[in-house]
Design goal:
Layout: H1 3-11, H2 17-20, E1 49-56, E2 59-66, E3 75-84, H3 90-94, E4 104-107, E5 118-126, E6 146-150, E7 160-164, E8 167-171, E9 178-183, E10 191-198, E11 203-209, H4 217-221, E12 223-228, E13 234-239, E14 241-245, E15 251-256, E16 261-262, E17 270-271, E18 276-283, E19 286-294, E20 308-315, E21 318-323, E22 327-332, E23 343-346, E24 352-357, E25 360-364, E26 375-380, E27 386-392, E28 396-399, E29 406-410, E30 413-416, E31 419-423, E32 430-432
Antiparallel strand pairs: 1-2, 3-5, 3-6, 4-5, 7-8, 7-32, 8-9, 10-11, 11-12, 12-13, 14-15, 15-18, 16-17, 18-19, 20-21, 21-22, 22-23, 24-25, 25-26, 26-27, 28-29, 29-30, 30-31
């Protein structure tokens, strides 16, 4: 297993398919920021319906058939749920609308900015991009809530950040060409985790590990460093590992430990149970603590399966958190007790989650043998279906913050959604998107 997976091992949806993507073959575009001058029509207070009344004295029977909404381009919606059209009917989707007051249904295929092939249960429309504070409080637990643009135009995908022998650089996810200059990177350790990018400030955060991390309490917790892409200046930002920046770029989360204890079985060694997630507000490069999400302790040092192994943002207020025993939880950052967060999946095979794309988790399976031992697997959190991919554990795979697209890096090659973008001709040591 190469240094990438070693770094990952050290460092170790409900995002909805219609507008966030669920499969590797889906092609989804993200939305431009809406302008306040965008002309939109006033939303109808009710969905379009067709009503047929048949009267046969002495009784009256009324049948209502729900039709899909047709929205004028240039508006925004909050996606609550999406149902594949090859599995569900409009009637099925409409049956979910009474669960959220005022919600309606549209067909994603009618809008180029959405991923085709889904009935979308949504709230809105809105003239400008809504915040998550507009999410309905009465939505069911299996509903999500995030904004999507309905229309034709879409902004380019965010730049990819790679680290090669020429330094750390940005690459256009559309053209595959370098963007801007390069900056030197001195990682300070030997294991470098994937990059988390704060686009507004041009700063990249990454986890650093040491081969002999068990020899000190501080090193055993890991370190999150940051580098300024314009200057190449690097400094230590936080303790912990696996930094993840929220989709809107306002928050950064990382896995950390509330304590480190001497290893009773090995003198001079330290054990660090990773039992918490620290969240900070990013504002002009200054980190302000926001929340601390904690597992109930103390941790059993002889059985550490409850520890946090990885996490990914679902939206700006919600994390998908993985534990070593295969438990997957949907965690609000306003909920400090991780043990009480809803469980969305439990699979003993998901020990090494690599990334999340839509409702699918890509992971390296444990205790595999033979030709499949180098493959990544893909598990759908809704259906539980597992498939073996052609992606090897030597590759990097990272989902975009839009919840739909993903990048794969193998050796010198970069792929977007499975299609070759560019061959850089230089070994790629780390990547972020």
């Amino acid at each position: 297993m190469n240094r990438r997976l070693l770094g990952f091992v050290f460092g170790l949806a409900f995002a909805v398919a219609a507008c966030g993507g669920t499969t590797a073959d889906s092609t989804t575009t993200t939305a431009p920021a809406a302008s306040s001058s965008t002309a939109v029509s006033a939303p109808s207070p009710t969905a379009t319906t067709s009503v047929t009344s048949t009267t046969s004295p002495p009784s009256t029977t009324t049948t209502t058939v729900r039709e899909k909404d047709v929205l004028e381009y240039g508006q925004w919606i909050l996606v609550l749920a999406s149902l594949p059209v090859d599995e569900f009917s409009l009637k099925d989707a409409a049956a979910r609308t009474p669960e959220v007051d005022g919600s309606r249904v549209l067909l994603s295929s009618d809008y180029p900015s959405l991923n085709a092939g889904y009935w979308v249960v949504y709230a809105g429309p809105f003239p400008e991009e809504p915040t998550t504070s507009a999410c309905p409080d009465d939505r069911p637990e299996d509903f999500t809530c995030y904004p999507r643009f309905v229309g034709e135009a879409a902004v380019a995908l965010p730049n990819i950040v790679v680290w090669t022998e020429t330094g750390i650089r940005q690459i256009s996810a559309v053209t595959g060409e370098y963007v801007g200059g390069s900056a030197e990177l001195d990682p300070g350790g030997i294991f470098v985790d994937r990059f988390a990018i704060a686009e507004d400030t041009g700063t990249v955060y990454y986890g650093v590990g040491w081969e002999d991390f068990w020899y000190s309490c501080e090193a055993s917790r890991g370190t999150v460093a940051r580098v300024d892409l314009s200057t190449g200046l690097t400094d230590v930002a936080y303790p912990g590992y696996n930094p993840q920046i929220s989709p809107d770029g306002s928050l950064i989360a990382m896995i950390d430990s509330s304590e480190c204890v001497p290893d009773p079985a090995q003198e001079g060694w330290w054990l660090t149970p990773f039992d918490q997630i620290q969240i900070y507000q990013l504002s002009q490069g200054v980190a302000v603590p926001v929340a601390s999400l904690q597992l109930e302790g103390p941790m059993d040092l002889d059985n550490r399966d409850r520890e946090v192994s990885n996490m990914f943002w679902l939206d700006n207020r919600t994390l998908l958190v993985f534990q070593w025993d295969g438990t997957v939880r949907r965690v609000s950052i306003d909920q400090p007790n991780l043990d009480t967060a809803p469980i969305v999946d439990r699979s003993e095979t998901i020990r090494f989650p690599v990334t999340v794309v839509g409702q699918d988790v890509f992971y390296a399976a444990e205790n595999t043998s033979g030709p499949d031992s180098t493959r990544l697997y893909r598990r759908n959190l809704t259906t539980g279906e597992v498939t073996a991919t052609d992606i090897t554990t030597d590759a990097w795979i990272i989902g975009s913050t839009n919840g739909a697209d993903y990048v794969i890096v193998e050796s010198t090659n970069i792929y977007i959604n499975g299609e070759l973008l560019v061959d850089l001709g230089a070994e790629i040591w780390a990547v972020g998107w």
